[in-house]
User: Which sequence fits this backbone?
């Protein structure tokens, strides 16, 4: 085998070309990783939002909370059903929630949709994974107070602790706490007392959705069929898992988009690698002839040049992943407009195994296909003629 | 006399350029004994380099047979002739053909990477080869840090490091000044007399040819003169 140091040193000798090729590959791998880690982050956030025992009850015919509305009278019969779990104090784990999505000034001066959720205490937080007040305290019902997700507190004017969040002409809330909710979709929301909200937006007597937790998967299915089938209710119960699965359309878009980017850019990078390797073969024609004369086989030459191309792209791929890694470590979040609520959804970049595998596959594909034709040219060189090359 | 080391029978070689067939060697027969030092001379285009390449297993005859130690090179597959070259032939080129990114040591070690020798054995062989060509202490120099003569010495060390029976040299002094050329030729004579290497050398230079024991002249693809020197060739020590 031709020693690897032959390739490494040649890469070092033509370091400008090497650096440019590695840089090009790195940027391509980085941008692809970025898109896929956004998709992974979003998917994770939506998956975390769904507890396997939780049901989300909407008006029949609604597929999401924005176009759902249930009268409080109908809703009141929900807690009377059998099979609903209770918390430690014996409260039935049912929460009525009312949603309002006003446009609010962001700190950058632009307006964006913001989900303001009127919730029940203590059940609404109990129905979210890992709900925690990390600063300040929970709002007191009836006092026009609110708690704000950490991501939102950073992004919107008046959303910081102790500030006043103005969401409409007459509607404003004093921020008394900052919360996290284990990376779930609640982390893109502002929570207020449901009764405060219904007064402020004149929606007394109606709610958007009811959330509840079943005691077991069996009772979950019973509850679901009772709610779905009873003609009086005109309700539709969604297991949260299914509901959020359906909402991952946004992340599906990212995945398709990411895959397209990955394919197009990879082809581009293949040309870059091929170009570099063709130049390498041309410049080293006489060396290739010499090695063939000395007894190195066609296979040796093929492996050497394919290896060099792979090495080139692998360094690029590694650099690309390293470029994106810190963004994920520092918990860099991004705002995406949800296709369902048109409100901003905040997700965290997440570099998971899938992202790494995609980067790896891209790198290998670029290295192999970019290097294949130049390497084949090197293999097919006529030994006698290449020895005469200056 | 034992069987010849190299035996060519009715060898012809023609190249095809576009649609035109260009004859280079025409029905050439030749035998070379083990341990001979043979110079191939002739005008440009006479086919001497092609003949050298055929003997070295770099090229194939269009017709005819080339037996080296009884094996017909024309019958060997591409991979087995590649292997055969690695085992039996050392190459010396006009432009030295060292790998620029490798040190003298690494260049000489290169053919040994095709053998089963371990690292230590390879190192010993490389040191020995470099000592024979008088370059000990230059192991870590890159080709660009060496003079032309020194580069050719590294190339010769690379040619002999696997201990092949045959050395082929194409204009080994063509790119060197007279003094350095003399030194290289002296080294080659020494390899012939002391280490019993069979040497086939293409040259334009009558001075270089004087080192050989036998001079073949080619013209237009035919052998026109086969001259075995009666007087002793110049000694390595002279």
Assistant:
């Amino acid at each position: 085998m031709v020693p690897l140091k032959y390739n490494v040193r040649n890469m070092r000798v033509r370091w400008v070309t090497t650096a440019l090729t590695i840089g090009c590959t790195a940027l391509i791998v980085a941008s692809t990783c970025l898109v896929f880690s956004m998709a992974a982050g979003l998917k994770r956030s939506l998956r975390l939002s769904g507890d396997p025992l939780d049901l989300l009850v909407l008006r029949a015919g609604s597929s999401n909370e924005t176009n759902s509305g249930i009268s409080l009278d109908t809703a009141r019969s929900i807690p009377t059903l059998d099979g609903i779990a209770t918390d430690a104090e014996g409260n039935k784990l049912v929460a009525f929630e009312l949603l309002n999505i006003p446009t609010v000034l962001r700190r950058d001066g632009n307006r964006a949709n913001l989900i303001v959720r009127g919730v029940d205490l203590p059940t609404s937080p109990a129905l979210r994974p890992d709900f925690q007040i990390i600063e300040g305290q929970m709002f007191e019902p009836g006092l026009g107070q609110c708690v704000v997700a950490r991501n939102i507190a950073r992004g919107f004017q008046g959303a910081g602790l102790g500030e006043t969040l103005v969401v409409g002409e007459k509607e404003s809330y004093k921020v008394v706490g900052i919360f996290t909710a284990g990376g779930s979709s609640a982390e893109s929301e502002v929570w207020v007392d449901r009764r405060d909200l219904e007064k402020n937006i004149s929606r007394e007597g109606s709610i958007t959705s009811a959330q509840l937790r079943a005691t077991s998967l069996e009772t979950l299915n019973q509850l679901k069929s009772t709610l779905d089938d009873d003609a009086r209710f005109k309700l539709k119960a969604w297991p949260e898992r299914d509901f959020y699965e359906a909402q991952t359309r946004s992340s599906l878009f990212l995945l398709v988009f990411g895959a397209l980017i990955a394919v197009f850019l990879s082809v581009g990078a293949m040309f870059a690698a091929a170009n570099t390797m063709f130049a390498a073969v041309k410049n080293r024609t006489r060396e290739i002839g010499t090695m063939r004369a000395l007894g190195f086989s066609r296979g040796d030459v093929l492996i050497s040049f394919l290896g060099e191309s792979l090495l080139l792209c692998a360094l690029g791929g590694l650099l690309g992943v390293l470029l994106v890694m810190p963004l994920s470590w520092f918990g860099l979040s991004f705002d995406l407009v949800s296709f369902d609520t048109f409100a901003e959804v905040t997700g965290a970049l997440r570099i998971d195994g899938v992202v790494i595998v995609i980067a790896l596959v891209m790198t290998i594909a670029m290295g192999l296909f970019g290097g294949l034709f130049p390497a084949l040219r090197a293999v097919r060189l006529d030994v006698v003629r290449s020895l005469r090359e200056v | 006399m034992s069987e010849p080391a190299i035996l060519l029978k009715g060898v012809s070689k023609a190249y095809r350029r576009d649609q035109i067939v260009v004859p280079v060697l025409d029905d050439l027969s030749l035998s070379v004994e083990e341990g001979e030092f043979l110079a191939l001379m002739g005008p440009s285009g006479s086919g001497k380099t092609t003949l050298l390449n055929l003997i070295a297993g770099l090229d194939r005859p269009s017709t005819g047979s080339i037996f080296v130690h009884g094996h017909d090179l024309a019958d060997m597959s591409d991979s087995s002739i590649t292997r055969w070259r690695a085992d039996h032939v050392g190459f010396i080129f006009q432009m030295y053909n060292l790998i620029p990114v490798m040190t003298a040591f690494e260049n000489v070690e290169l053919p040994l990477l095709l053998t089963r020798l371990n690292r230590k054995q390879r190192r010993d062989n490389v040191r020995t080869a470099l000592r024979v060509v008088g370059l000990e202490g230059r192991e870590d120099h890159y080709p660009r840090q060496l003079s032309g003569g020194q580069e050719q010495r590294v190339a010769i060390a690379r040619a002999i490091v696997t201990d092949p029976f045959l050395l082929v040299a194409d204009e080994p002094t063509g790119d060197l000044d007279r003094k350095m050329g003399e030194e290289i030729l002296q080294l080659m004579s020494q390899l012939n007399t002391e280490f019993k290497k069979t040497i086939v050398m293409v040259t334009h230079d009558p001075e270089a040819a004087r080192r050989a024991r036998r001079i073949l002249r080619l013209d237009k693809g035919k052998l026109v003169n086969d001259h075995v020197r009666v007087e002793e060739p110049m000694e390595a020590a002279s």
